Amino acid sequence: MRLPGRRPFTLGDPTMIRFEHVTKSYADGTTAVDDLSFEVGEGELVTLVGPSGCGKTTTMKMVNRLIEPTSGHIYLDGEDISAIDPVELRRRIGYVIQQVGLFPHKTVLDNTATVPHLLGWQRKKARDRAAELLDLVGLDPAQYGDRYPEQLSGGQRQRVGVARALAADPPVLLMDEPFGAVDPVVREHLQTEFLRLQSTLHKTVLFVTHDIEEAVRLGDRIAVYGAGRVEQFDTPATVLGAPATPYVAEFVGADRGLKRLSVTPIEIGDLEQPPVVRLDDHAARAAARLAEEGAAWAVVLDADGSLHGWVSGAGLAAGTSGPGEAGGEVRDHARRMDAWLPLGAPLKQAFSTMLQHDAGWIAVLDGERFLGVLTPAALHAALRRSTAADAGHVQREDVVVESVPSA
Ligand SMILES: Nc1ncnc2c1ncn2[C@@H]1O[C@H](COP(=O)(O)OP(=O)(O)OP(=O)(O)O)[C@@H](O)[C@H]1O
């Protein structure tokens, strides 16, 4: 299904949700949320992270008026929500919770179509929309649409929960530990899929989690909670690189240098430029060029410029006795290597791809275009670059020691 593409969130975009001095106290004297003020931009994904009982869920439930604040105001797209009818408000806000809350006696398709039904859409239109959404979250409607929730895995049920929340195309999504009940592998999978979805949909999302890794991975910005208050509200890179308080530093963990790998993107300046040859280049000529440049190997691109793999100078030279002699084309000597990353991918992904392929380098592409290669040395340098940008908040040595063990 094609969805209208919108550009990703950037700081400074218009505000969608605004908390203004919001406090929630209960009759027993518990102050669940204490004088909360922050803004969420249109199309921004903000993760609320903190230990159990610190007020994350209360914050979220005040946005769709499942809980009313004791004092302060919350604005949705400029409107004070206390003046909006709660039923009308909730139509504008998708809600995904950990227990999913699917109706056990309804099929997956009907569960997904719940909100469109409530909105009075015609049955066919609602079911067509539900099928589109199931497809979007990676569940084939033909295969899963007629199943009942108990016939799905935990991860599949979570996907249905996300599809259902998106069915009426609300501008805002509230997600309360939506991936909390599945095992770590499925969880990472769901996170990846959700990021892919968000890169197309650009919903305004408040996402509650206990897990700092999840918060860092998903959030455009993170609100780190300590007992009812937001201790720091900033980008993942800043929260990890420059924790605002000792509490935040402890919460994000001593290994924050490692976690920064998830939020530091590969940049063009990190790349090295090995010689590049084409599959249909003459092998002997390519060998001579490598010898001239003192290079042991070259990246091999195919005729249309996409990555094929690599070739060693020695491999090329074998069987050729000089330029112009027999020896065939580079394709006769090249080896496949399809380890590549898109520009902007996080350094963590670069490390893991390198490990997975047992490779000393990874090609970096912009779309189909080959840009250069990332080597372990370049990764190390990239991490130093990102650490140096923190203006002295983190000792550079800390990060280097933690993240790039010396060979
Ligand atoms: N109805 C209530 N009456 C009294 N106290 C409450 C009530 N609901 C929540 N609280 C308290 O408010 C505080 C914040 O709760 P909240 O559910 O927002 O925390 P949380 O950060 O979402 O926790 P968790 O991660 O465990 O879900 C907790 O101390 C909780 O015990």
Automatic annotation (TrEMBL):
ABC transporter domain location: 17-252
CDD domains: ABC_OpuCA_Osmoprotection (cd03295)
UniProt xrefs under Pfam families: ABC_tran
One annotated GO molecular function: ATP binding
Top-rank lineage group of the source organism: Bacteria
Keyword Lyase: no
Family according to the record: Belongs to the ABC transporter superfamily.
Protein's name according to its UniProt entry: Glycine betaine/carnitine/choline transport ATP-binding protein OpuCA
Species whose genome carries this gene: Streptomyces rimosus subsp. rimosus
